[in-house]
Amino acid sequence: MTSAIPHNRRLLPVLGVVLTLVLSGCTESSQDGTLVFEAEPSVTAPVLPGPSGAEAPTPEGVAAALEPLLSDEGLRGTLGVAVHDAATGELLFGQNNTTTLTPGSTNKVAVAAAVLATRGPDYRIPTRVVAGSQPGQVVIIGAGDPTLSIDGEGYYPGAASLADLAEQVKKALGDQPVTSVVLDGGAFTGPGLAPGVDMADIAAGWGANTTALMTDGGRIDPSGSGTGGQRHDTATPRYKDPGHAAAEKFAELLGAPTFIETGIADPGATELGVVHSPPMRRLVEETVLSSDNVVSDMLIRQVALARGLPGSFEDGTVAVAAVFNDLGIPGEQIAMVDGSGLSYDNRISAGVLSSLFAKAAGPDHPELRPLFAALPVAGYTGTLDSRYGHEQTAAGAGVVRAKTGTLSKVTALAGSVMSADGRELTFALLLNDRGNAFEAAHGLDRLAAALATCGCR
């Protein structure tokens, strides 16, 4: 049986959008002085802990709300649960909360936080072209922008384009025709796929070989709508070598031979053109809201590069753990092998994920606040758009904001929820070795909805 979502619950996402616009404001065009609202503004002010004077939840209150639901048939398996008070960071409830479990796509939240902490919300990834060693030779240097489009009409809104880059190169070279294109993909090292990834998922198009240069997340067909609403990352054919395919497209735009050489650019070579990705906060929104596997696998390598390490999966996972230690969150409870969460070898604890959101809600790390703007809203957006319509979970619609995670025998949910008293709670629910996926997701949704209905005192 399903029930309609109460009208007052449906108002909450709209109010959230209005608040976000007020908090993040708009930008002034440097060209004509007009005010332009961002298409998808990000939260830049502290996350409010709730109405002034709201009583703090207690561990006993949270336990009373959750414990009757933990025997749900859908939750059989190994369940890790952590709930924190966003205002104080206090752990209110824990069950296997320090046990490292396979997180599925909730892994993306940890990667998103690490890249925001290292690169910063406004960092843009460059794609550069420099002069080669021979007359008419150019070198295109990939630095890990997964959103780069061919002609500005690609999969990701606001992405830079190879066409723009080609026009810059042509202008810089003047009458000199381009005789050859060299691909420098040396920013990334190591294997393009992480251990523990089911190759059937790659063959189906859920992920791609990670290369420093690619267009449209490696998609062969970039058609699709922009970030937000009901769009999810889906299985779609990807290039086996996205870097080579992108370099070939670039050569075509230059009118050059499409035989692509590989090499490393001379650090002192003359720059002929450069384009930049959308800001990091937008890439975080993309990977978290739509659960984009390729973007997240690129971002974990950005964390490594920002920490002065080689851009490999292995170095990225080391870097993420170090960033969490710097934030005061136990990095030893993180054992990643990729950014997307596609690998079954990833491990993280529920306590780490919940405390991460509590940290992001506090006053000391404003660089982490775009995490909240990126989270799907229960019943409305991203990977939660079709959930929380059941009568047992409807109370969470509009007030639960969380990242989902799903693999075979893995179901997860991590994010924040506003309690009935207006107190912001953060939570993480990781279920491994579970049975029916739909029953498991419903069981986790019931737990989050219970937090929405309780004062937890």
Automatic annotation (TrEMBL):
First and last residue of the signal peptide: none
Gene Ontology terms, MF aspect: serine-type D-Ala-D-Ala carboxypeptidase activity
Stated name of the protein: D-alanyl-D-alanine carboxypeptidase/D-alanyl-D-alanine-endopeptidase (Penicillin-binding protein 4)
Annotated InterPro entries: Beta-lactam/transpept-like, Peptidase_S13
Upper lineage: Bacteria, Bacillati, Actinomycetota, Actinomycetes, Micromonosporales
Biological process, per Gene Ontology: peptidoglycan metabolic process; proteolysis
Superkingdom of origin organism: Bacteria
Enzyme Commission designation: 3.4.16.4, 3.4.21.-
Keywords: Carboxypeptidase, Hydrolase, Protease
Similarity-based family: Belongs to the peptidase S13 family.
